[in-house]
Amino acid sequence: MSPPAERRAVATAALLAGCVGLYGAACAAGADWLEPAVADMLAWGATYGPRTAGGEPWRLFTSLFVHAGLVHLALNMWVLWDVGRFVERRIGAGYFLLAYLAAGFCGGVASLAWNPHLTAVGASGAIFGLYGLVLGWLARAPGQVAGGSWKGLARNALFFVIANLAFGAANPQIDNAAHLGGLAGGLGIGLALGPAQLAERALLRRSAGAIQGAALAMGTWAVAALWPAPPDFQAQLDRFNALATRTFATLEEIGAERRGSAHLRMRRTRAVLAGVLPEWHEIRMTLAEYGTPPRGREQVVTAVVESMVAMEEGWRLFLEAADERDDARARRLLERSIARRRAAVAALRRLPER
Q: Which of 27, 61, 68, 197 is the most buried (most CB within 10 A)?
């Protein structure tokens, strides 16, 4: 079946404009042009299990417009323009948008199930779904996907699949589980209805669209209401980083002071540690209670917890030494305190570079 010559791919163009526009807005707001930080991607709608399943299921859709870098965006937009026009011209803008979002939703759910601690972004899951849609059509009736554009589409599909699998292996924010989930979702839609039936029967197209829309709404509600939110390791790691940075800066400032007596500096240090230790202990215990760290973050979480244990012990020994009246015992406590704090620093040095 050949596409109507006069039909313009307005939905494909709108999706492309949305992705490029959001990337530009994020960069204008301060995100890096070549490789945005995870925090920036989260701020602009990336999917992340503790948030997506914790009351923000809309991230399954907004993440389709967020990208992990300029190359990632360019590759996805090139292929979206190619396969999107091919599909949209055969089934119309409305049903095309529903199929695109449904495939993207399937990819997001697959990513959430495979690794809920991953911050995932990109249109590639939905684009895989469009290729799955075409594969479903071919399986139903190969003659329905006619025209010389098919061979070029196949070549681009092969390149896209290889490139995205490579990106997924190299970039932790690009998830191959989402690719496979999107592909499966699109394949199911394509097997259910071919382009000939959708193009020739307006009532069938509207009915299928209504069913897909209802399924998307129900699926989104199910993620929000029924999917258990995983523990948010990253939030605790961010709390640790902020608290450690603030505390060490204050202690360094006290140690660099030349005014006042050593006794006064000791009192200030004790006051700082007394205020820090309760939150420090809470973060450490929360991380311990969460249990097994997420895939890919085991080394980071283990090193942070080891460092927090050693630093907390060192600070408590320091406070004990400050209250000790026996000078010899106080010196021994200080020596143990220094040893534990050095162990804490050594644990942090084992953190992998980002």
A: 68
Q: Strands, E, within 142-267: which ranges? A: none
Q: Which of 14-28, 185-199, 290-304 has the highest mean pLDDT?
A: 14-28
Query: How far, in Å, CA of 182 to CA of 24, rounded?
Result: 25
Q: Name the nearest CA neighbour of 192 among 129, 136, 144.
A: 136
Side chain identity, residue 145: V
HEC string of 299-337 equals HHHHHHHHHHHHHHHHHHHHHHHHHCCCHHHHHHHHHHH
3-state secondary structure of 69: coil
State the DSSP string of 123-162. Answer: SHHHHHHHHHHHHHHHHH-GGGS-STHHHHHHHHHHHHHH
Q: Identify the pLDDT of residue 62.
A: 96
- 78 closest CA partner among 179, 157, 187: 157
Average pLDDT (232-243) is 91
Locate tokens 């417009």: which residue? 65
Whether 77 and 20 have beta carbons less than 8 Å apart is answered as: yes
Contact 278, 316 (CB under 8 A): no
Q: From CA 150, how far away is CA 144, in angstroms rounded? A: 11
pLDDT category at 163 given cuts 50, 70, 90 is confident
* pLDDT at position 145: 58
In percent, the amount of the chain with pLDDT more than 90 equals 36
Residues labelled catalytic: 124, 179
DSSP 294: P
Residues whose CB is less than 8 angstroms from the CB of residue 221 and which lie 6 or more positions away in sequence, other chains included: 57
Predicted confidence at residue 354, as pLDDT, reads 47
* CA–CA dist 138, 190 (Å, integer): 9
Res. 235: pLDDT tops 80: yes
Section 317-335 average pLDDT: 87
Q: Which tokens sit at 159?
A: 């390149």
Which residues touch 248 (CB under 8 Å, ≥6 apart)? none
47 beta partners? 120
Closest by CA position to 226, among listed 218, 216, 235, 234: 218
